[in-house]
Amino acid sequence: MESSWEKRCTDSTYSACKTHTERPPGRSVFGRREFFVKTTVYFIRHGTTDNNVGGRFQGSSDIPLGQTGLRQAYYLGERFAGMPVDAVYSSPLTRARQTAEGVCRHLSVQPVLVDGLREIDGGLLEGHTNEENRRAYPEVMDNFRNHPARFCPPGGESARQIHTRMTETVNRLIRENAGKSIVIVSHGFALQSYLACLDTPFDEMEPNIVGNASISCIVYGENGDFETKFYDDQSHLPEDLRFRSAFLKQGRAPGAKRAE
């Protein structure tokens, strides 16, 4: 029987409930072939910071949660209360760590900090507003918003570099927790670089930044198939805490049909 948690999640506004099995038999998204058990991963973007609200590029800068973000972390803890979670992994940046601590509030596990989950290094963009960066680096910011695979901030990390780092890190965590349920707390562009490429070649990555404190649940099965149970879900947050950037674009769930 479907649990109340699963029913609540699959009925959410951002539910996808798609299974993607386009890879050849035996080929795994993890790069190995011996995984024949289902592993559940809850991907969470950190809560809102004052920079998020102000449209200021954060990147690798270590910015804490704002008051809204702290409240979001509280509601994440309420949502995961009583859930069978085996491990919680977080970017070491303060805003992600604080979010992960909120997730763990009613759980018997504590966050494990993983450097590979940190946000993209934004180089010279960091600390400036999106409008300031658009004036100084119009092509870079156009790529950031519309062509994420091409994004390469001056003095920072390229989209391909973070895609490689995130993919290697997430796949390792899945291999180490085969058959379990885990939470991964990371960042907007970092999560986009992994999730948006689950069913799409890197060079064709679509703009797809999930909301702050949103949850995306993906179940990985044998032969590298995956099922998106729900995506970019903020249903656990009161309406006044559901924050999304007006500058960045949201997209489709992994495995969902592309728009014509």
UniProtKB/TrEMBL annotation:
Organism annotation: Butyricicoccus porcorum
Quick one: which residues bind substrate?
Answer: R45, H46, G47, T48, T49, D50, N51, N52, R95
Q: Which Gene3D superfamilies match?
A: Phosphoglycerate mutase-like
This protein's name: Histidine phosphatase family protein
Q: Name one Pfam family in it.
A: His_Phos_1
GO annotations of cellular component type? cytoplasm
Recorded GO MF terms: phosphatase activity
Please name the InterPro entries in this protein's record.
Answer: His_Pase_superF_clade-1 (IPR013078), His_PPase_superfam (IPR029033), PGM_Phosphatase (IPR050275)
Where are the catalytic residues? Answer: H46 (tele-phosphohistidine intermediate), E119 (proton donor/acceptor)
